[in-house]
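Narrative summary of target 7.
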Amino acid sequence: MNETNNPNKKMTSVMIGLEIHVYLNTKSKLFCSCSTDIINAEPNSVTCPVCLAHPGSKPVLNAKAVEHAIKVGLALNCKINNNFFFSRKTYFYPDMSANYQITQYEVPVAENGFIKLGEKKVRIRRAHLELDPAALIHPQGLGKSNYSLIDYNRSGFPLLEIVTEPDFSSPLEARGFLNQLETILSYLNVLMPNMTMKADCNISINGGNRVEIKNVSGFQAAEKALAFELARQKQQEKVGNKIEQCTRLFNADTGQTVEARKKETEEDYGYIFDPDLVKVFLNNKQIEKIRNEMPELPQQKIQRFVSEYNLNEYESNVLCNNFDLSKLFEELMQKKVDAKITSNLLTRELLSILNHDSLKLNQVKIKINDLQELILLIKNGKVSDKNVKQSLINYISGDNTPPKEYLEKNGLLIKEIDLESIINNVLEKNNNAVLDYKKGNNKVINFLAGLVMRETKGSARIEEVLEKLKQKISE
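Modeled conformation, tokenized:
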């Protein structure tokens, strides 16, 4: 009997919540003037008494980080608190020289928001500021070294932690949320370059204890970590074992989670008000000023693309749910090219190639003029769909030759050809296939069209080839 039709089959109730750590795009750290540009810096060279937690050093709050946090809160439909303060979260770990983390506990910058994920409303519990610990370096790999090194250059980086309610019912849904959140943050321009968003993934089944998977980097990894943990918990429950509350780590190489420690409770951290930092007071004017300076967000842009460029809802969604793609589309629109052709080229061909090569748009070099030339060739019927894709593959994953130059050099542009003679020749040599088609085997037409396209080196339009083949066979 199919499980879905089995009335005795117990359905698994799944609850997933996320805690996402976002590096905010500021020039200096959260509580000191040390630079956040550490890419080429020697270890422990971009530090000061504050981010090293020397006795007597005093933190001073970065105003730009607060502004970014308010922007994110507004974009997530949160309530912005007019006054908030910072606390000390006490724990002992080598990457935390003060033995406490400056964070927000009782009153965050923003709380009680939501994001629409399709028809579903995902609730945002809070968004709060905190500093990042130092980086632990394991010279021979995690779990393989008998010692670790500490680099304090990253210590004090501004983090915004966004905490959701446990509103996700599947790992795929959680990944969809992370993708949408990253898009919103990209539109706001608050993401620190070259820093990856990380997520703590919390999951429980059938009302049982919650398991936290700590510091998962990347959205695909988050989905895989949750999928493994979901399967593990189901198996444990199946054999009668109780799921214990604990913290686990995800191994991206094996695709498995492993237990790190039993889960602490909030009381274990001993939160106290940080006496070195004053309370922050915001008036409504300040908040409204930031609201009025907010950029256009994805949902607003989707509607504008539909009305301004006459795109359908689906095309507009695909374009606008990728910040770099929507930006590229608008840059091309400034060149007065055809919106429909441009949308098809970007959402179908370009994204297909990028996904195949596991690339993001900001990782490849694309010149607007190169795409403009290709769009004009498509509009004027000078290139087939097959060769459009081939020219883009070479442009992105090959030797980066501009598409038009590639097509000209390889003789792939549609030119005046005696298509009728080529079709007659193909039909003459494949009489059995013609008879099969006349008997009702419609798939044969694709075989014949393939032979014609090969003879034309892909320079003919497939739609025209199919139409002419059908006409000739029916004569």
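The chain has 15 helices and 16 strands.
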